[in-house]
Amino acid sequence: MQKIIEVVRLKTFEYHEPRTLEEASTLLSQLGQDAMIYAGGTDIIPKIRYKRIFPAHLINIKKIPQLNEISCDKKLTIGALATFNDICFSGIVKDKFQVLAEVCEHIASHQVRNLATIGGNICNAAPSADSPPILMVYDSKVEIFDGRQTRSLLLENFFKGPGMTDLKKGEILTGIIIPEVPPNTGHAYIKHTIRKSLDIAIVGMAVSVTLDEADKCTATCIVVGASAPVPLRTKLAEKYLIGTYLGPSDVEAAGIAAANEISPIDDVRGSRNYRCEMTKINLKRAVELASGRARHE
Amino acid sequence: MNKISLDLTVNGQVYEISVSPTLTLLDILRYEIGLTGTKKGCGTGDCGACTVLVNGRAANACLILAPDAKGADITTIEGLAVEGELHPIQQAFVDHGAIQCGFCSPGMIMSAADLLNRNPNPTAEEAKNAISGNLCRCTGYIKIIEAITAVNKHE
User: What is the ipTM of this complex?
Assistant: First the structure.
């Protein structure tokens, strides 16, 4: 007897499983805009289910070897297919890029972190994504393969808008390179959310601070997530901190500058005004954390 | 739509099946193999009702496309008890009354099993983190956390 079961199937798509990057890139070029890369699947499957995207072709790149490797030779190289749990459980990352490990440990849920890839998180280009701000303050570059050669690009220049990136036809993000952390440098990421897990940032605030021997700030990078069409580096705010001793008035001025630079929207998670206020407050908290860590380096 | 052939091991038994690549591992478990202990909740990775162990690691079966299950070693809630003897985490859920309507229980128990494999004596905070991707609509979290932290304590 045949059982009649109602299965809510995903909309039909053609499935491809290339074995090399070259093959994947050729497929992407040939199939054009109807094709999408499938990696962790944690964003793409819900989007297909909610009928927000209708890919005619899914190209699974997980059969391509070595794309999930994490290695460190002064600089840290993370393969695009490394999952968030691969990263936060990695001894190298925990040891030398501690704040990145901490951020990865608090993305989504444990089950999702076993599937979701860092490359996917970047390529989705969600303005609220957690990994881009912290990767940007670590001065990360992304490596992009076009079928013939690899180019590298500062992550800061990769994002072009919500869901939009610098990836051209046939290009695939293959890895992330993080340079060695300069001495006396500390990092921090504050994710402002209602729930600790499985929640999207209302404001994400990533900061790096480099201090000299007298605790004067010689370099800083401030990136605000969920508050602009892209994870936004607030360079004006940084100017208020460089050359100072990070006194309360300096940090407050930087917070006001950052709030002026961002262009948040009103949505279900928070209003524009609330996001601006939380940017000022979380910048202060993140600078305090990062500078404390820089002093202990 | 071309079907794909895949073999996967579920609870120690090897299955060879031919399915559409648009199915998820959850669909395969429930509708192809007939193991309905793994629940279908949101279908988008938010509720954790479909949590299974894939090669020993907890994952949402609703987020894994059929071809990615090829060659995988899957453990579902049905695979925890051995010869009719409940797994210690299942027994702990019973002993602590950590079950109300029961819909979230398979996912909760699989997340807890994953945690206990990594960390046999978790704190309440670690237990909370481990089940943070599992929603209980009855809100019976306290008993669940008590059960998870108690598993290896009374031995």
Answer: 0.96
